[in-house]
Amino acid sequence: MLLFLFGIILLIAGYFTYGKFIERILAPDHRDTPAKIHHDGVDFVVLPHWKNMLIQLLNIAGIGPVIGVILGIKFGAITFLIIPVGNVIGGAVHDFLSGMMSLRHDGANLPKLIRMTLGEIYYHFFSIFVIILLLLVVAVFINIPAQLIDGLNPTIHIFWLAVGAIFLYYIIATLFPVDKIIGSVYPFFGALLLIGTLMIFAVLLGEGFQRPELLTESASFKAGMIKEPIIPVLFVTIACGIISGFHATQSPIIARTMESEYQGRSSFYGMMIVEGVIAMIWAAAGMAIYNLFPSMMQNNPTSVLLKITDYFLGSQMGTVTVIGVIVLAITSGDTAMRSMRLSLAEMCGISQKSFSKRLMICLPLIAIVCGLLAWSNISAKTFGQLWNYFAWGNQVLAASTLMAATVWLVMQRKAGWVAVIPGMFMTFIVVSYILWVSPKHGGPVGVGLPLQIAYAIAGVVSLAFAVWAYRRGRGKRLQ
């Protein structure tokens, strides 16, 4: 219990200390923002600050801080420390830097920022990679909320109906102006999410103080713990609560609707801190349920989530909270699709002011997502593969974004170490994971090297990437 509460305090303190330190390095000023310079009534629109913060929170807080941590807490109570430390010096910094990079460069999407910092060769690889990842994100964020909707009433199976309704909403949300759909419905969605999570927190505190053993590694809990190495597997399992490259694809949406640069710390760094708090609460709830019902350690995280809400809140309030979690996924999936449209349009030089051109970009994306949905629902194994590739691909984005931010800061003769340290760590995570993972280790297709060899190679690669980023930044000035 104490480690859980200490972790939440660390997150809050991090916003007011390390977050303020990063803000001083970035030095926001009174220059005009992209929303004012490029106002088009579609993507570049000034929105109220409170609304931007809610949109950013719901954009980034997908199912990772719920589903991911329900899985991740099985690594043990150390998760309560890893989430806040990784969030404060890694994830929140990643989100703040990517958001401010976009804000300073006309609301540019991530591929364009990569081109500016890491060069043409890396840009071409990265552009294809980010589109593939966003396609996986959309497919995952249709699948899981549809499963949750289907599970609300075990007597009626409406999975494919839910899939169709969610996908239709995604298409509408990505085609219409940002203030017409996303800006209108997100405040309601945000309230639903926060109320549900706070209810879980309140009940959990009461239970935890009466029965402190619920948030400890009991003998039955230890028997079901994940035995895979924390590094790198935990940082692939829990993405959104610690660090997530997907967030950098979402930050430009808000960079195009902000009125002032001074809103950056609360909109980018602050909302990642809030996501970390959400992750801590759901991780604690997961540990409590695993201690109360040890057999649940073998269940899929969706069924554990339903058990959490039913046990702590009862059927009626539990349903409200599950709806809040469904909202988490849906409000990340719609902006992921929007981000795909914007990134492709930017790469191809296609203006997005006219509806017909927006539709032209979306049609092939719709067809591919339909194919992914059909494939991923063939069996539990195919969905597991989809999730796994999404998870480690997400962290490739995080490593790339942080290295791009390193170049960007060094180009301005600023403290690049704030980006390169978490960037090196995430490079180490993804390289070691890809080299180590294989079917014999319980994962997808990979190289399958012994862990120590994978660590050694990953260490060399991460150091070389960091040195290259620093040298590239020092070799040029920001245009």
Strand element count: 0
Give the helix/strand class. mainly alpha
Shape assignment: globular
User: Based on the structure given, which CATH architecture is correct?
Assistant: Up-down Bundle
Largest sheet: none
| N→C terminal distance | 50 Å
Radius of gyration: 21 Å
Measured as a percent range, the helix fraction is over 70%
Low-confidence stretches: none
Treating each run of at least 4 consecutive H or I residues as one helix, how many helices? 19
Topology-level CATH name: Amino acid/polyamine transporter I
SSE order:
HHHHHHHHHHHHHHHHHHH
Number of domains: 1
- For the record, what CATH class applies? Mainly Alpha
**Mean pLDDT across every amino acid position:** 86
Estimated share of beta-strand residues: under 5%
Indicate the topology.
Blueprint: H1 2-16, H2 18-26, H3 34-37, H4 49-60, H5 64-72, H6 79-104, H7 110-118, H8 120-151, H9 159-175, H10 182-210, H11 219-224, H12 230-237, H13 246-255, H14 264-292, H15 301-348, H16 355-376, H17 380-411, H18 417-436, H19 451-474
Helix pairs in contact: 1-6, 1-14, 2-6, 4-10, 4-13, 4-14, 4-15, 5-14, 5-15, 6-13, 6-14, 6-17, 6-18, 7-8, 7-17, 8-9, 8-15, 8-16, 8-17, 9-15, 10-14, 10-15, 12-18, 15-16, 17-18, 17-19, 18-19
